[in-house]
Design goal:
The chain is α+β, with helices and mostly antiparallel strands. It has helices at residues 2-18, 82-89; strands at 22-27, 33-36, 40-46, 49-54, 59-64, 68-74, 92-94, 101-105, 111-116, 121-126, 131-135, 142-148, 151-157. The chain has one domain: Sandwich (Immunoglobulin-like).
Length: 158
């Protein structure tokens, strides 16, 4: 739980330095949930859910951690699908779900980080060139988060 809070804290520090206007959470099914940074007081992870509160402790949004497809920042409605987000960031992560290799195209970063849903860093992989493959055969089956600079992608290892 403590690591989840650390990851979320790092995410918000990165977001604040980018001076974007909204935090956008995309569930596995359904529409993106956007919250303007000016309205967000704090974010809390509890009972396996992500809660976004206003400065006056009003609940702005709630989503189960296992139901998060990705979290990004930017303008609401600038992208409506995972493919749009990947095109906007020029980064593509596939196949998802995967069994052995995760492929990253056009990543704009030096390293990729894989976390479990408890916030533990499991793997760090250097990114080189326009096409990088990450071997995930050693990971047990389950859901994971891949962090690439300002993009977080949830992937499933089968």
């Amino acid at each position: 739980m403590k690591r989840k809070l650390i990851i979320l804290s790092l995410l918000f520090v990165a977001i604040a330095t980018m001076a974007e206007t909204s935090l956008i959470i995309k569930p596995l099914t359904g529409q993106e949930q956007a919250n303007a940074f000016a309205q967000i007081g704090y974010v809390k992870v509890a009972q396996d859910s992500l809660f976004v509160f206003s400065h006056s402790d009003f609940l702005l949004s709630k989503i189960a951690i296992n139901d998060v497809r990705y979290i990004r920042y930017g303008e609401p409605n600038e992208a409506t699908s995972i493919e749009d987000v990947q095109a906007a960031t020029t980064c593509r992560v596939y196949p998802n779900p995967t069994q052995d290799m995760l492929i990253i195209d056009n990543a704009n970063c030096e390293k990729a980080y894989i976390f479990d849903l408890n916030g533990r860093l499991l793997q760090t992989t250097p990114i080189s060139g326009e096409h990088t493959s990450i071997n995930v055969t050693s990971l047990p089956q389950g859901d994971y988060l891949l962090l690439l600079n300002n993009q977080t992608v949830k992937f499933i290892k089968q």
